[in-house]
């Protein structure tokens, strides 16, 4: 039967407004001290939020809403009742004020993922790192300061596992008078990849912590909030992208999944990567891409095939054996449908995707990415470094009485960086640093692994599985040039780790499998046109080297973006000290920082 498919229009986000509601909870003496110091700073410095005529103001109301997926309804936490949440459209260099009202039942924070927030970590968002959470019934006014970012970023909750449903796109256009470094697309479409659990996602988290084992995998993968045709009770809601033959579409792809790295492809169509993590790249054409949690890609799709229906699809990339049931092994789909009169194929064609455990396939895009490195988009990679760090990233375990836990061999899963599993404080590190409050964190995070061994050997002594624990950070001098080598290990499980650094983008100068060789591997670094990213995945049993200049003072979180690894302790922070001049120093806090 022939159908006529109308041409598509651009998808817009909607932001609703409501009136303010707030309350002040009871505080312990330490929190009262922080609060009084905040007020003093506000009176002396004038506060951190100044709404100018050119500054746009948005409203985010965090509240529960009922959504039905996989045949059953469930209350989920949303922003403005939308899932995925509203898209923020901005221009390069713009500043946006967002009033965040927490009308939900749980604490919340919001993070602007990939926005470097120059000199202003106060509204960056990670819970107990740069702020205490926004409590139910409260409000926090957050400032998004855009600077060099251009392309696709995203925002998400940064407390517990609420980002499973509290997330949305940030689309940053070129400044007036400038243009894309590629032919302007006819249409732009956010493609947000995610996960869905039938149960409450924080209950899944809590059960995993209680048993000490891996949390239950998701029940479905999602494209723009929908599982797609291959799941029960889902076909009517499948996301559809209508295209006109001969036109070019810019897909702004975001991996908002809590746990899963994803292979993504569109049947019989090539994908051309032109940007990642808010920075443009040389065009890279592939049949599929691998996108790790936290990452974004700008991808051009040319509608150059015979008019028909074609599946776009995503599956999990995982090195875990299928029988262990540690990952979501389903397939999410959406439909690319050409406009015009024709009889569509039923069902549509499925695309080629690699085997779920194909590690070589998982690094093909990373291996080919290059920054533009031209006059309009210079590459300022540090050619030498003053601070050299080697950070091992490991899955570990703690022993349980009578081997009674659900982790490996009856243990409790944990994770670490340089064998330190992070203990989350109860007062955020930024306020403790700014107001010189002792006892919240230590500043002795090691520059190198405390134990050096064959990190990627097939069999390692059990003694290496036990980490230490603490709230340790690393202090960096202002304007120091930093190199971090992230070394994956096979301590308990060899797997990938998408490492995300707040407050900075960095140059990915090298990567490889096996153990990093400090004499040989730097000779192969790309110091000409390395990609500029803020989330990079350490390959399974491999390493990645990044470089950046520590020119953004403040407290900045570093963590794995696989949510269970973050929950288990694979995180730390940098404190970047102020420079000598006022323009090289951290700005004062806003007056309404959430109390602890």
UniProtKB/TrEMBL annotation:
Binds 4 Cu cations per monomer. GO terms for molecular function: copper ion binding; hydroquinone:oxygen oxidoreductase activity. It catalyses: 4 hydroquinone + O2 = 4 benzosemiquinone + 2 H2O. GO terms for cellular component: apoplast. Its main location: secreted. Pfam families: Cu-oxidase, Cu-oxidase_2, Cu-oxidase_3. The keyword Glycoprotein applies. It is found in: Secreted, Extracellular space, Apoplast. One of its GO terms (biological process) is lignin catabolic process. This is Laccase. It comes from Vitis rotundifolia.
